[in-house]
Amino acid sequence: MKYFTLVIVVCSLIFSSASLWANEAEPLILVMGEDSYPYQFVDEQGEPSGVLVDMWREWSKQTARPVMFVSRHWTDALAQLSVGDADLHIGMAVTQSRRERFAFAQPLSHVGTYLYLHRDLPQRLTFEALAPYQIGIVSGSSHEAELLKLSPKMRFKHYKNRHELLEGVLQGEIKVFAGMQGYLRNKKINKQVISLFPLSNRILIKQVSLRPAVNKSNVALLRQVNAGFAAIDKGRFDEIEEHWIGIKRQKNGLTIATTTNLEPFISLGGDDMPHGLYVDIWSLWSEKTGIPISFVTSEINQSLDQVKSGKADVHIGYPESDKFKTGLLRSQLLYQVKSRLHSYGKPIDSLQSLQGTRVGAVPTAPYLAELKLALPDVELKLYDSVTAMIQAAKEGHITSFVASSSWTHHYLVLQDAWSEFYPFPELEFVTDIYVLTSPQNLGLSNRLKTGFELIETQELAEIERKWILNHQDRIFESRLEKMLLSSEQLDYLKELKSIRVGYLKDWKPMEFSSEDGIFSGINRDVVDVITGQLGVNVEPVVFNEWQSLIDALIEGEVDIAGSVAEDADRKKTLLFSDPYWPSPWSLATPIEREAIFNVQQLAGQRLAIVEGYQLVNQLMGADYGIELVLVTDLNSGLNAVKEGKADAFVDKAINLASTLKHGDYAQLKMSVLADFSEQHSHFGVHPSLAKFIPLMNLAIKTLDQTKRQAIYQNWIQPVAIAPRESDTVKWCLSIILFLLLLVASLFVFRLLLAKERVKRSQLESQLSKLTNYDPMTGLANRCLLDDRLKQAVLLHSREQASFGVLFIDIGELKPVNKEMGHNVGDKLLKLVAEEMSGCIRRSDTLARFGSNEFVVILNKTKDLDLVCQVADTIIINLAKSFDCEDTKLNVRVSIGIAMFPADGDNVVELLKSADKLMYRAKQSGGNCYKSS
């Protein structure tokens, strides 16, 4: 019996071991986020990657348990784990709601979560001050719970995943969004986001731990997970994080080893802190990446040893070369130092004049071989430092020396000896200065490169101008002026030789033919910049009409044309350059009409527009209710308005302003269309020149603000017109006649002037009232409403406050007008307006928006409840009967409520939001209000 029992126990153990082995042979299903770079994401090949993925792969090796990664959106990943379709989540932040559903292992990594603020918002805002703004977050992320703990009043805009969130960020949908620290995988998007949302503006939400999660019922698996990770060497975790993040997990920034006494590149200031060109470049890198930096100073060889030993992460900048190798990795080209010949006492006439003389140099200079080739007939004498060479030159031991031009210039100015030395600019050597890191830390090298890619050349040029006195020694400034092209690109440009540029004959100031028939204007200057950079000739081709120009471009009769808007239809037949000039659309209307700032105000009116403009399709495709009047050119459009054939004319603001100013159009005025104020001009390019577009874009990048301003001022200045001879005679006669009559008319003039002042004051008052107020109700009209709304947006943005907009529709007026006549309807409308005026404060604005539509601006309303109370008051007061012509009449009121900035950060968005909500109230039967 004893042996039988033993056999049963042994068999049981065998079967249980086999069962355990079978279970452990099955791969664990690990669910993960698909776009949380660099912690957990799917790469370009569709493979799971990131910090946590590599840590789990180490766990799999350690435990001999296979794993399978499944990527999902955050909400889907949590749902999959919750229902048991996955065994584990590879790592997430712990929140109260998640703690109720899952059990968590020990943390694998830590990450900071931040609120990223738009550059237009003030710095150092508190969480409470962000209450008026919608905060963009990924649905299912931990950010929402953490932010509500900090400020319960926060409002959120949810996005399905990180990609959609970033699209919303770049499209201007939100001014604030929540995210993890780090950088984005897409370098182009990363650069765009950081330029709009500087890391210096971000606010720390919380430092969170990323922990694997399992269902609460699976405690055994949790113990296995913890045991497996505990058995892995912590140094391996450090290597993984260094690979992906570039910084060791125990550190909060970079330690940069640097030498000193290399003015103006590096030196110690009076505060014992490093200063100089290299220091400022690194400070800008830190600002762009959000990674803190600190400097450790020592002698040059010791600074290199600190990087080799791991006491410092990076060397600030060293002239590493193939001749002088340090054994460190060249991670980034930081700068290029120019070295030149300097002579004492008198300038060098030519290199031949140095034959038989002695020239000084430093032994570590990487250009020594080049120097010997350039000066084969001189004796080179080596010195330990530039200071020693300067002293040797003064004492006559050498006639000249080669050294860093900037360093020498700086030193000689400080020693008041600059006038005694003469640089020879015709002989120049360029030394590359590299950022050096440990060869083993490729992750750090990649992180450094990513950070430097965020810096614009213009920003580096501004730093350089601060430290490098001689413009000939500046590297970045010269890069703004010239372009580096490949041999293939240069060959293409040689074959191209010239391009045919189509332009309009009379479209000032963008493009036109001068009196001599020469292609002129802003577009000509931009074309000259492009062709000058690329060495291509221009063949101008003039057109009288815009449509003819576009047709010729499509047919290939010209190669490029300026000021072409990029849209989906044109992209089917044309290619486009990057934008090069802002080109908002504006309206010209009769001077007596109220100003128009958005397209909706043109409903039911005739709008003149040049045939072929891309805006024609947009206006026809949308339901604006506008009758389009097609014209051939700008002057034809203005004449159509002048002669009453159209109610308004739309064209580019810069051209419209110039023509109205210099043409015979005193009875017309201009207003900018807010709907289309962010438009930019592109060059339209025929597809046969596809290879030319990348080269054009490189040249367009050299158009900095200074160049654009110079071009603008060149063509916007008013043109002086020389008077004709007959005009001169007329003016002379007029002046003589005026002088003869002056004494006789002076007394009468003074009397008339007094009367004229009174009359003018009365007319101005009447004109102001007609311009800004509705003649029937006496309320503000749409012109004044637009102005008040713009002022409200500016004021409340500056003060970080909110305000409300009510869009009110008064129903039941049409039956009154039809049955009792418009006089009764107008009287009823006046009574309604008077009643609504009594429902708001004097500091608020009530405006008539349309025939039976009104808008209310409620300034400085702290929350939605106050706005709703006003809406309730209006509905209650308008629910009563009104006495009109001995008849009791009733109206039905529908109100839409929009809040700034939650429902819109600008005038157009606020009115759109309020209008939509008003229609929802109207569809609900009226006598109610709707809010978002």
- Mean pLDDT score: 83
Tell me the CATH architecture of the domain at 493-716: 3-Layer(aba) Sandwich
What is the CATH class name of the domain at 493-716? Alpha Beta
Instruction: Report helical residue fraction.
Output: 40-55%
Q: Which descriptor suits the 3D outline?
A: globular
Kindly name the structural category: alpha/beta
Q: According to CATH, what is the topology of the domain at 493-716? A: D-Maltodextrin-Binding Protein, domain 2
Determine the oligomeric state from the structure. Answer: single chain
Query: What's the total number of strands?
Result: 43
Strand content: 15-25%
Summary?
This protein has 31 helices and 43 strands. It is an alpha/beta fold and 932 residues long.
Describe the 3D structure.
- The protein has 932 residues and is of the alpha/beta class.
- Among the domains are: 25-245, 3-Layer(aba) Sandwich (D-Maltodextrin-Binding Protein, domain 2), CATH 3.40.190.10; 493-716, 3-Layer(aba) Sandwich (D-Maltodextrin-Binding Protein, domain 2), CATH 3.40.190.170; 782-931, Alpha-Beta Plaits (2-Layer Sandwich), CATH 3.30.70.270.
- The chain is built from 31 helices and 43 strands.
- The strands form nine sheets. Strands 1, 5, 6, 7, 8, 9, 10, 11 and 12 form a nine-stranded mixed sheet that branches. An eight-stranded mixed sheet has the order 16-13-17-22-18-21-19-20, with helices on both faces. Strands 23, 27, 28, 29, 30 and 36 form a six-stranded mixed sheet that branches.
- Helix 19 crosses helix 24 (692-701) and helix 28 packs antiparallel against helix 29 (822-837).
- The longest helix has 48 residues, at 725-772.
- The radius of gyration is 37 Å and the shape is globular.
- Residues 1-24 and 718-726 have low confidence and may be disordered.
- InterPro entries: DGC-Regulatory_Protein (IPR052163), GGDEF_dom (IPR000160), Nucleotide_cyclase (IPR029787), Rev_trsase/Diguanyl_cyclase (IPR043128), Solute-binding_3/MltF_N (IPR001638).
- Residues 1-22 form the signal peptide.
- This is Diguanylate cyclase (GGDEF) domain-containing protein.
- Keywords: Membrane, Signal, Transmembrane, Transmembrane helix.
- Pfam families: GGDEF, SBP_bac_3.
